[in-house]
Amino acid sequence: METLTLNVQGMTCDGCAAKVQKALQGVDGVSMVEVSLEQGKAFVTYDARSTNPEDLYAAVDDAGFDAGY
Ligand code: 9UX
Question: Keywords of this protein's UniProt record, alphabetized (predicted)?
Fold first, then answer.
């Protein structure tokens, strides 16, 4: 398993954090997600055989938040 910390911009309430959480958990290969609204970060544990950082950044972007590199 690999871990990645994403800097997520644009989360302003718990609902936003929940959306980011759901988006990341929906990516095949993701096993654990923790989102910190306060820190503006998402901590993801994933299987590198199934996904990669690019996919994870894209999932956050698709959910309407900016996880730019
Ligand atoms: Mo809160 Mo975020 O009311 O997408 S859910 S601002």
Answer: Metal-binding
